[in-house]
Amino acid sequence: MWGNAFLLSLLYLVLGFGVELALRVYPTRFLQRLSLSLDSLPARALELVGAMDPLREAYFSGRVTEFGVRIIFGVTTVLVIFLLALVVGSIMGGLRLFVARRAWRRAGGR
């Protein structure tokens, strides 16, 4: 479970880094839209916990740089992916336990 979450978060971060790097060299409309779509996951997560407005204010007042926002978005993305892995893994583990107990009882256990 943790290995898949790590690989997925690593892939997401590498893709985001590649898009940002390509956007600096070749600022096309496609890359701008791709960058915005990659930023929507951490932005919505921060919005959900009420941290987006303070981050926005800090960015526009100059207390947080663009690099700082990227770091915060990257950490948020990794946390969201790991939380999703934990929730899905827990649900699947619970379902597997339920099915195993049911099969054990049908086989004459207890």
What would you call the structural class? mainly alpha
Helix content: over 70%
Main beta-sheet strand count, sense and barrel state:
none
What is the average per-residue confidence, as pLDDT, rounded to a whole number? 87
- The oligomeric status of these chains comes to single chain
- N-to-C CA distance: 31 Å
Radius of gyration of CA atoms, rounded to a whole number: 20 Å
DSSP, total strands: 0
Number of helices: 4
Q: Describe the global form.
A: elongated
Order of helices and strands: HHHH
**Strand residue percentage:** under 5%
Q: Tally the structural domains.
A: 1
Q: Flag low-confidence runs.
A: none
Question: What does this 3D model show about the protein?
Answer:
By secondary structure, the protein is mostly helical. The chain contains four helices and no strands. It is elongated. The model has no long low-confidence stretch (mean pLDDT 87).
Summarize the structure.
The chain crosses the membrane at residues 71-99. By secondary structure, the protein is mainly α.
List keywords for this structure.
110 residues; mainly alpha; 86% helix; elongated; transmembrane; YggT family protein; transmembrane helix
